[in-house]
Amino acid sequence: MQADAAQRAIQAALSTAASLGLTAHDAVVLHNSNKLSLRLQPCDVLARVAPAAHQSAQFEVDVARRLFAAGSPVAALETPEVFVRDDFVVTLWTYYEPVTTRALPPADYAGALERLHAGMRQVDLPTPHFTDRISEARTLVADHDRTPKLTDADRVFLAATLDRLRRAVSDSGRPEQLLHGEPHPGNLLPTPIGPLFIDFETCCRGPVEFDLAHAPVEVGELYPDVDHNLLRDCRAVMLAMITAWRWDRDDQFPDGHRLGIEWLSELRAATAR
């Protein structure tokens, strides 16, 4: 978020906390992207704040609440309500002091993801399909106005790669289920009670290999019953999607243009093998 929007988002979070009787005089920004993650103090509650026009907070809360009830390794909600304040939506979560003494072992990561997937098989909610996300990236690549710096050759390559990989993953015949959508290390908190997943707004349906594509390579090697050819294709389609997003004229990812160039080169190398 830009500075002005971020300040209004912080005030929305503090106001929401006060309305619930929580003592919140200050907010520490933990993460700033399309939404803000804030540590409210001294009540020590985590607030997630997003523009009301571009969010799926109720869906995220519904998924997280069901997963927590199923015993899945997910962060707990402070309250199951979604609050609207000054064109923002605010959700409140338990704050966990991070464990930073060591990196999470791949076996622990794989075990947490396997338990998450087991819990997700018990959740029945209308959910987008993973191919919807590929289609969004494909639409972005085709839109010259939204991706003006993408050369014609790169545009053709990205579009063809997304189309080919979508067919390959869709035709794999692997079982599909509810997925996290982006279970990368940034969405897995190492806490004193074990690793916990956060950020469920990207949940979708698809094969577990699509989730594993976002995790470190070692995790895919330890997760049981993986189709490694499919995982290779999922890693490539994930790289193609995030590459497309870096060429969006409105992308605010730090150093995004450089990454877009770098990832295009990586994608060409990955798809040439």
3D shape: globular
Q: What percent strand?
A: 15-25%
Which structural class matches the secondary elements? alpha+beta
Biggest pleated-sheet summary: 5 strands, antiparallel
> Roughly how many Å apart are the termini?
39 Å
How does the SSE layout of this entry go?
Blueprint: H1 3-19, E1 24-32, E2 36-42, E3 45-51, H2 57-69, E4 83-85, E5 88-94, H3 106-120, H4 130-142, H5 152-170, E6 177-179, E7 188-191, E8 194-197, E9 204-206, H6 208-212, H7 217-222, H8 228-246, H9 256-272
Helix pairs in contact: 4-5, 4-8, 5-8, 8-9
Account of the 3D structure:
The chain is of the alpha+beta class and 273 residues long. Helices cover 45% and strands 17% of the residues. The protein has nine helices and nine strands. The strands form three sheets. It has a five-stranded antiparallel sheet, covered by helices on one side. Strands 6-9 form a two-stranded antiparallel sheet. The protein has a two-stranded antiparallel ribbon with strand order 7-8. β1 and β2 form a beta hairpin. α4 (130-142) runs parallel beside α8 (228-246). 37% of the residues are buried.
